[in-house]
Amino acid sequence: MAKRRFERDKRERRTIARERIGILMGLAERASLGGKGARADRYARLAKSIGTRYNARLSRDVRMRICKGCGAYLAPGRTARVRTSRKMLCVTCTACGRVWRMPLKSKGGKNETGQR
Fold first, then answer.
1. Model-level pTM?
2. What secondary structure does DSSP assign to 39-108, as a single string?
3. 2-109 to CATH, choices 1.20.5.420, 3.30.70.1520, 1.10.357.10, 2.170.120.20
4. Rounded mean pLDDT of 88-100?
């Protein structure tokens, strides 16, 4: 009986953690737009630590907004340089210089040989 309660509490903690991560990332975005980069970085680090503490997986858009090298909040045009080259999306952190690459999907869903 105690184990079921623990599992339920664990799920509740994770959902609360995900909500808090979303709130912190929203605050980080607003702080970055307001010119407070240090505060945005702090919010991003807090969101990542909450996800680690409660074993809550960060969504893809949250992971793309936090630098893996220095933990800074990545705002395109402010703290991150975003470029496309050779069918790749390259995001460079301006604080530490770490580069993150992601392949871009081709239009139509066909590969280079023309087959689906």
1. 0.80
2. HHHHHHHHHHHHHHHTTPPPPHHHHHTB-TTT--B--BTTTEEEEEETTEEEEEETTT--EEEEEPPPGG
3. 1.20.5.420
4. 95
